[in-house]
Fold each of these.
Amino acid sequence: MSKKPTAKPKPAAKPKPAAKPKPAAKRKPAAKRKSAPKRKSTGKRYSKTERNKIISHVKDVNGTRGRGGVASAVRKFGVSALTINKWLQAAEPGAVSKRPGRPPGRPPGRPPGRPPGRPAGRPPGRPSGRPPGRPAGRPKSDTANTLKRLADLDGQITKNETELISLRKEFKRLKELL
């Protein structure tokens, strides 16, 4: 009887050290957590001399060019256009208004988004109640003529589509010849 050679057992790989579990991040309960105090956002404060210098620059540019003083001051001094316009308004009320003789903004009681002078309910761009494209003397219900015109247009569209198909076939044939 012969003994079968037994396979030598493979040496066992060295066991890797187990990774240490990371400690869970501890959070304070929401009720006890202190919130950071809100910082007040304060912009740069300008002195009277700085304001007067900027306003005089705006007036000089507007005097020579006719416009563009505020934009020029924004680029030169780094002050926002809103701030400059507020200063101009405070210095000379009505000087900044693009519509002289009228107060800025919409009149009270008119909802935003509707231009002034247009009554509520009337769609924009149509001066009267009739639909666009309908002459003043034409009756409102002219269904027979409308249906006839629709049929004519449908015939023209079909004719043009069939002509277009034949033109595409000819184009493809000529293209293949090249």
Note: The chain is about 40% helix and 0% strand.
Amino acid sequence: MTLTALLIGNFFSLCTAICIAISVVKRNKIRLIWWQIWDTFFCILASLVLLSYSSFTTSILCMARNVAAYKKKLTGALAIALMLICVCIGLYANNRGVFGLFPILAFVEYTTAMYWTKNDQQMRYAVVINLSLWFIHDLYIQAYPSALTDVLLSLWTVIQIFRHIKRGKRMRRVAFKNA
């Protein structure tokens, strides 16, 4: 890969990182998904330039899933169909060996969580798993801004998980004292 391609790929990776960072601070799920649509758009471009074809195909399907979720059209049947398509096309397009499997796994894991998880805390766990999978892949393809953002957002989400657990313990103690 040429230095020019690496720089352009990392520029798109930076755009991806900015969009995903904005999405996680949004309190409204629709606004969060809107920014994730832009995140996947830039991820498509970064994956293409950085020659990760399983990530490229997976990101296209991520964008389709996110648009469906944004329009409130993401059904269980559509989620399953997208996951099956992602696995088939992603495996066929994979040119990065084991590391090319991480975007496919991330898609399946996050799509499952996005559709079937109703609990905020469970969704946080799903986000950490998803970001960890993308981190490994992003590091491998040299998408450094995305890799750094994956780490930072994972840490931030883990902090949120512990805050939620701590709040729950504090609320249980108060409820126990009042009983």
Note: The chain has a mean pLDDT of 91.
Amino acid sequence: MLVIRFFRVGKKKQPSFKIVVTDKRNPPKGGRFVEEVGFLNPLTKEKNLKAERIKYWISKGAKPSDSVYNLLIKEKVLEGKKIPLHKTKKKKKSTLTSVSAEATAGKEEKKEEVKKEVKEVKKEEIKKEVEKPEEVKPEKKKVEEKPEEAKPEEKKEEAKPEETKEETTDEKPKETT
């Protein structure tokens, strides 16, 4: 596939360009081209274009690069609109119908609601973290309950001497008889 593009020549920091017709697969600095169809010196604003040859190669299927295309339109070799070479931010569609505008507004409201819910959940988690030291307090109560458990054991110990008293009372009559 043939392209019409710039071929840089000239010294360092002194650019000048040949406008050449070349195969797309050839490197831009390779030096191999089919035909030279123009010249551009951006420092002196000098331009030399062979309009007939450029139109011929375009009719044969050669496609100009974006910057060459803009130059050809500027010099009125071709007609059309210039191609923007710089990157632009994507714009939101300004021709939205009222239904689609309402739908997008509804989606935005839902997003805001979800964000609020997330914030509330985070606040609750923070509160739970703050309440965790209070959970330590019930553990202290458990420590207090342990002595209460010891009290029934004391009762059991008291019960044992009573049993021993009964045994001793039984033994005493045995001894007396």
Note: The first helix runs from residue 51 to 59.
